[in-house]
Amino acid sequence: xxxxxxxxxxxxxxxxxMDESEGNVLPDxxxxxxxxxxxxxxxxxxxxxxxxxxxxxxxxxxxxxxGQKVAIVSPKPQxxxxxxxxxxxxxxxxxxxxxxxxxxxxxxxxGKAMVETATRTLKDADVVLCVVxxxxxxxxxxxxxxETIRQHARGQPVILALNKIDLLPTGESPYASAYVELVRPTxxxxxxxxxxxxxxxxxxxxxAHLPTxxxxxxxxxxxxxxxxxxxxxxxxxxxxxxxHQEVPHALAVVTDExxxxxxxxxxxxxxxxxxxxxxxxxxxxxDGRMLKAIGQSARxxxxxxxxxxxxxxxxxxxxxxxxxxxxxxxxxxxLLRGGG
Length: 340
Ligand SMILES: Nc1nc2c(ncn2[C@@H]2O[C@H](COP(=O)(O)OP(=O)(O)OP(=O)(O)O)[C@@H](O)[C@H]2O)c(=O)[nH]1
Ligand SMILES: [Mg+2]
Known about the structure:
By secondary structure, this protein is of the alpha/beta class. Helix content is 31%, strand content 21%. It contains nine helices and eleven strands. The longest helix has 18 residues, at 289-306. It starts with 6 loop residues before the first strand and ends in a 9-residue tail after the last helix.
């Protein structure tokens, strides 16, 4: 990780407060590690709302550009529940991706909060990146996404990523024109987030549509999430992988304790909340085997994130109807007070 004074290619970092005329002003509380780079005059920076229906590959795409897992990914819809920042910086631009929950027809308060989170993100963006699954024809949820963009975006450029073309034998989507007709984007590109087709070209298109201006974040910062939050998400990802049907959707994970045992070991205790006793039994599994498997998968990912040995304690508790209760959603961080 880079910090303090260092020079890298055309980016120069300094501990000294920067001149206001250069557009980089240090807030009073800025520490040396948070110093922003002095950027060249044609440097581009801005916020990109990554939106689309669930499961189209929004989080996968952001992660591959960042070169690390900032958002968890799974084949199950409605994996992402928060707005997650992923910060990409090179010597020409800083792109602040705002990964969002998939826009869908909600069936409970959690779903409604997720869709509202995605909708609010559209207002804050300089560019809207609409991701679709081009291996399938547009669905009613894609129509909902388009309507949401029309209603809530402020006329920003809309870039359409026709994702998952690796699933099409010819590499071309028979549905491309239907998506273009529906979304009416500024630019569109067939891509594969996983195989890599046109991923770099898409990033260049995004950068070209950002305004010129200095970086918002230090160049070594990749996200705004805390380690505690990321740990809880990695446990949820492991649970999504091992559990099926309704159980993963009824699951919330909270990191209860996160402490450094010694130089090389971190102790983490977390609780997996489900809504019913029957779900608790499934998560624990026969002789605790399911919970053990979830713990083993999660621990591998957490150790990779922290670069340390991890001692992971997992607990399972019932929290009835947490997805339907406003106060519970606040407590779990899925609803912002006063913001809906
Ligand atoms: N074949 C193929 N699969 C992909 C591609 N991109 C993503 N996937 C898969 O699609 C599934 C969903 O990916 P996510 O990144 O979680 O999708 P999302 O849009 O963030 O989903 P939500 O968070 O639920 O809204 C995962 O199994 C990914 O591995 C791609 O380009 N090709
Ligand atoms: Mg996602």
